[in-house]
Amino acid sequence: MEVAVKTGRSRFVHSAGYVLEYDLAVPEEPVSSYLHVLFHGASRIEAHTPPVFARRQWTRSAQEACLFVCDPIHMHTKGSNCGWFLLGENEFLPKLLELRESVMAEYGFTGCVWHGLSSGGYAALKYWMRSGADDLAFVIAPHDDPKQLWQWERYAVPFLDLPAWGEPVPTTRQMDDWLTPGVARYLHAVVSEKEAYYALEHLRPILERAGYSDGVRAVKLRNGRDHGFIADADYETQLASAIRDWEAYRAKAAIAPRPSQPDRTGGRA
User: Fold this and answer.
1) Which of 21, 81, 157, 202 could join 70 via S-S bond, C-beta 3.0 to 4.6 A?
2) Do the beta carbons of residue 127 and residue 51 sit within 8 Å?
3) What confidence tens digit (pLDDT) does each residue in 169-228 have?
4) Backbone angles phi, psi at 247, to 5 degrees
5) pTM listed for this prediction
6) What residues make up the domain containing 20?
7) Is residue 215 domain-resident?
8) 192, part of any domain
């Protein structure tokens, strides 16, 4: 089912009443043929009025097609700053993937870049894999298993009884076939210099599960920064590198025959 494409602020409404807010910005002449989808990480709920969008003031958003997505937990309660985009995902996940398809078709885009920081990185990886497409995941210190984090007890456990709260399946358990030969999904992950916990306990298992494939690259920045902090210049440099590598990987994979892929858009995680 196609989703109507309308630029600007819009929303999906869940049958249980939850709301997923998003903002689609498409310049008159995008500088590339890619759609960028951005998931935010934990927000300062005491300082932000929802909806919360990652990098909404990003300079590149005036040049590229960008879809900014707000975690539905922020529209439901002020008691959580981090919901891993799990609330209502049984309906929101397929709808957002349908929106991706509609935007790609409407504008003739040839690829999609899924951005995410921290808990948003967890969401970006999930949507990237479920899309079934030759997309790029560009993630900063992504989570593998949300339940390993102290934030889970504080910001998720009080809300687990809400209807349609998605199962926090570890990223490593969702990776069974994403590296199928002939499929050109590409993962570029970045961690800051002082993020040893996230590098060792979350990113390393993801890399090990991926088998350190040619379709994966991980970078540790020598930036003296802790979790959640990355300079705009580093973000731009790493993104440009990720896109170049992804394009080369897609070109190489195009030579090989492509196997059929299962439908990954429906159901709970």
Assistant:
1) 21
2) no
3) 999 998 876 656 557 899 999 998 788 777 778 889 999 988 878 899 999 887 766 666
4) -60, -40
5) 0.90
6) 8-183
7) no
8) no
Cβ neighbour number for residue 79 with a 10 Å cutoff: 11
Residue 111, in any domain of the structure = yes
The pLDDT, as a whole number, for residue 268 is: 45
Per-residue tokens: 163:
């209807």
The two tokens of residue 83 are 């919901």
Q: Where is pLDDT greater, at 129 or 262?
A: 129
235 token code pair: 């973000």
User: Which tokens in the block code for residue 1?
Assistant: 């089912």
H helical segments located in the chain: 72-76, 89-107, 119-131, 150-155, 196-198, 204-210, 232-253
pLDDT tens-place string over residues 230-267: 888 899 999 999 999 999 999 988 766 555 555 555 55
Question: The tokens 């993020």 sit on which residue?
Answer: 195
Output the CA–CA distances (angstroms, integers) from residue 51 to 23, 70, 72, 167, 226, in the order listed.
10, 6, 9, 23, 25
With beta carbons less than 8 A apart as the criterion, state whether 101 and 95 touch.
no
Closest CA to 202 of 114, 85, 121, 268: 121
DSSP 23-73: EEE--SS-SSSEEEEEE-----TTT-PSP--TTTT-GGGGTSEEEEE--HH
